[in-house]
Amino acid sequence: EHPFAPSDGGLDMTDVAILAVVNNPDLKAARNDANIAHAQAFSASLLPDPQLALAADFNRYPDPSSTRGYTIGPSYDFGSLLTHSSLRAAADAESTKTDLTLLWQEWQIVAQARLLFIKLTQSEKLAQLLQQHRDFYAQRSQRNQEALARGLITADVANAALASLLDIDKQINDLAHQNNQSRHDLNELLGLAPGVHVPLRGAAVLPPLDTASIEEMLSHIAQRRPDLIALQYGYKAEDERYRAAIIAQFPAFTFGLSRTRDTANMSSQGFNISLSLPIFNRNRGNIAIEQATRQKLYDDYRQRIDVARSDIDRILSEQRIDRRQLIQVNASVQQLEQQRQNVLSAFAHRSIDELVLSTADTA
Fold it and tell me: Biggest alpha carbon distance in the chain?
């Protein structure tokens, strides 16, 4: 459980993910598809209704001994019962497949929401840093222009600060473009109007990757990932349809009872049986189609497993590279921190100017 309290200063990363899963328009459409699949499974579970036939005969030239004739009788298509269990199993499998596909979409939406949260919160921190440096370079550029006008410095010295200011402005504008895109992407993901400002709070909290556990899970990934399990149920549904197509090649059997009275007032009762003759068609076309479709689904499933394993292996390799790079960056930051302390000490003794200090801060 997670307390959802957006009024307490904004949404944290989990709040954003919750709101995305609940309110995302694509997920709403996917849930409608799931409801349709459930309704189709319910429809497939119902038995076919019997038929009732009624016919009437009228004598065009009636005489005193004639009467109105009729035929009435119920009938039932027993052939449809042969494929009922297979078609019902296929519909149930399709329903489960739709639920699993929805779950996989929800996982993707959660990941997108977390990623946008990280982008926006880190961009805000970067924007504050850039604005601090811009204020410094703006003040320095103004002083340099005043000094240039008084002939105290040369143009190349004055233009150096101005170039740094323009570079900071470009970074700020580029970041503003990125934030604008991320904000709109987040609102679209959350199902909110474009102009709604979503306040974000808190830091990105993600569990550390356990590479050993992930590599161990790869051996049975097909039993873990919803999209792969969904493909299994899709294959199961197609296999049942293939079985139904095979069963449907046998003669369709319809049985009915009848009661008849002709215009001569003679009554009779009996039964009727109808059978299809599997001579030309024998449902071979549908069998071939279902068989080919089943093979395609199987090949798609095997390919998806290979792609999933390859993607995970690539991501784990990238993580190892990122960890190595992070160690290098942290080591460099420690060195720069020490150098900055030295620069601060020199600045306190008026041995260097503000530009050197700002350069150290920027680094």
Answer: 136
List alpha helices for the chain, DSSP H: 13-23, 25-45, 79-149, 155-190, 211-217, 226-247, 284-348, 354-362
State the Cα–Cα distance between residues 173 and 114, nearest whole angstrom: 24
Sign of the alpha-carbon torsion through 220, 221, 222, 224 = positive
What 8-state DSSP symbol labels residue 223? G
DSSP letter, residue 207: P
CA distance 138 to 168: 10
Among 206, 211, 239, 244, smallest CA distance to 79 is for 244
pLDDT digits (tens, 9 = 90+) for 109-127: 999 999 999 999 999 999 9
Other CB atoms within 10 A of residue 173 CB:
10
* CA distance linking residue 211 with residue 352, whole number of Å: 48
| pTM value surpassing 0.70 | yes
User: Which one-letter amino acid corresponds to residue 127?
Assistant: A
Q: What is the DSSP letter of 250?
A: S
Contact between 124 and 172 (Cβ < 8 Å) = no
